[in-house]
Backbone:
């Protein structure tokens, strides 16, 4: 089943007399429950793609359809509801609130997400239930990133949008995080979309999208993606 459709999507930024197409006439379809990696150099349009799909920005033209809803037509209030219900965000920086415990950080979404998951169960699933009452500064970088993943998952979203989620981690810890994200796709049917510069991560993907100069240059389906342990890191 299609979860994401981009139909002739363009995002243009105008600064004075300078006009830049961050994305140009993008047509794309993604199936539900896939592990997707988006590759491209800096400035290619990868983050613009994530911002549009996450409802943080609006296309200049074209349609973006997510789970049957054209989000490009939504009001700001409707987009806020969309972000609360459908999309989880994971970034290179963990963005945890330092004065809240691990459990409190994950539970933050309970009031905004209509179908939220149990914070306690999620922490148990990622092996952090023993750290529930610790504060972020008491955790390692990999543990903090796992907390941020739990917080994103707590909304029970259809899609997880990940912007360089392992960029601040060493390779061994990064593999742990990637295995967790892959588990969310395989065992829980989440659509995982990762923006990265790391070509190795693409070897794990069901679908690899290449973006350059605001255009999707190729979409590769990989029928036999590698497991994290099989990738030469």
Residues:
């Amino acid at each position: 089943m299609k979860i994401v459709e981009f139909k002739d999507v363009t995002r243009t930024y105008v600064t004075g007399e300078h006009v830049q197409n961050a994305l140009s006439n993008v047509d794309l379809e993604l199936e539900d429950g896939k592990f997707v990696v988006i590759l491209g150099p800096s400035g290619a349009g990868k983050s613009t793609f994530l911002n549009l799909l996450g409802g943080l920005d609006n296309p200049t033209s074209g349609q973006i359809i997510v789970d049957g809803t054209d989000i490009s037509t939504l009001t700001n209030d409707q987009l806020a509801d969309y972000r609360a219900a459908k999309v989880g965000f994971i970034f290179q920086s963990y963005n945890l609130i330092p004065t809240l415990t691990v459990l409190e950080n994950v539970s933050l979404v309970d009031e905004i997400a209509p179908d939220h998951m149990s914070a306690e169960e999620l922490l148990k699933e990622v092996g952090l239930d023993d750290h529930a009452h610790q504060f972020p500064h008491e955790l390692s970088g990999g543990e903090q990133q796992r907390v941020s993943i739990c917080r994103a998952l707590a909304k029970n979203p259809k899609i997880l949008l990940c912007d360089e989620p392992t960029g601040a981690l060493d390779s061994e810890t990064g593999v742990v995080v990637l295995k967790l994200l892959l588990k969310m796709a395989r065992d829980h049917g989440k659509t995982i979309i990762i923006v990265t510069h790391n070509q190795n991560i693409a070897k794990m993907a069901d679908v690899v999208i290449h973006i350059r100069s605001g255009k999707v240059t190729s979409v590769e389906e990989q029928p036999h993606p590698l497991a994290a342990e099989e990738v030469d890191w």
Observations:
- The chain has one domain: 32-61+75-227.
- The mean pLDDT is 92.
